[in-house]
């Protein structure tokens, strides 16, 4: 089981690395094409059916780009389709969700003080809510509300606020914030897979068949692409939020999540306006800073789970029953508890890193895997070994973990 734990950690690292790399590729191409589209200019020299053009310089060369709303009369054999970046980002994110929150549902997904359900029920709630998000969003876009850009965005924001609150009634604060990212990212990828790419293929098919393509398909695809553009920055925040308890471990975490969408919108509005050469709305940065200060203030509210006795998961019971548990618990309380506690005593540490609290035996048993990886198999904790944990104590933590995991 010890070797399996090492393999699990490296699998997590590999999938997380893949997720970040593909996300960079997707976000980069998305931001580029939005900026390109907004910067297009109409010139007298444009070919028939061309909508606009732009000249760019990069990497020692010049690029002359022209956009056609439906497609030119002559379509080249080779077309570059921008879709795999989106698909790979979503698939790797789904793998990461499964590896961390589904496999580790007892610790990372379920807060039994919030909703005490079996692991499989929590996993179904997770997956079902993500699918439901896309279905509801897509129905709204296709409804009369979807004809109004402002109206649609207001309704969508109301749904996002409701989901932010709803997730806090189902999962841990950390999982609630992460699920807002998964909920939003699924909408974005489904936009690409279910709307943007199919619409582009219809246009290409019509052109190859000698039919005049309908411009409505491009208009619909552009609307969904614009939505993706405004949702990108909040998704990045939610991806990073699991590393910052101030974001997720407060009773106002759902309000923080809601405000993050507004911060993302105003920042993207600034760049979109500049790219469209319609001015420099510097006021957007003032709004973003004010909203972020409000978020920082909200994060000082009492933390979820700071009071009350810790509940012991089924797997944690095995670690508490292990032969070396008492000695391992003493080592953790001696070397780790000055930071990993509800009220840290280490100078400069104001709350437990990643909200991992090790105040009692139940807490320690619940975090057995993390303790073994961070302070047993590796020397990541304590940072710089500031509390002078010995090699013997690290070996003890590994032995205790092996006993509890049945290896």
Outline the structure in words.
The protein is mainly α. It has two domains: 2-43 and 83-298, no CATH class; 314-405, no CATH class. Helix content is 64%, strand content 4%. The chain contains 15 helices and two strands. A hairpin with a 2-residue loop joins β1 and β2. The radius of gyration is 25 Å and the shape is elongated. It starts with a helix and ends with a helix.
Uncertain residue ranges:
none
Beta fraction: under 5%
* Domains (count): 2
Order of H and E elements: HEEHHHHHHHHHHHHHH
Q: What is the count of helical runs?
A: 15
Q: What is the terminal separation in angstroms?
A: 5 Å
Main sheet?
A: 2 strands, antiparallel
Share of helix, binned: 55-70%
Average pLDDT figure: 86
Number of strands: 2
Question: Strand order, biggest sheet?
Answer: 1-2
Question: What would you call the shape?
Answer: elongated
Q: Tell me the structural class.
A: mainly alpha
Give me the Rg, rounded: 25 Å
Summarize this structure briefly.
With about 400 residues, this protein is mainly alpha-helical. The protein is built from 15 helices and two strands. The protein has helices at about 1-40, 85-100, 105-110, 120-140, 150-170, 175-210, 215-240, 245-250, 255-275, 285-300, 315-320, 325-335, 360-365, 370-375, 390-405, and strands spanning about 50-60, 60-70.
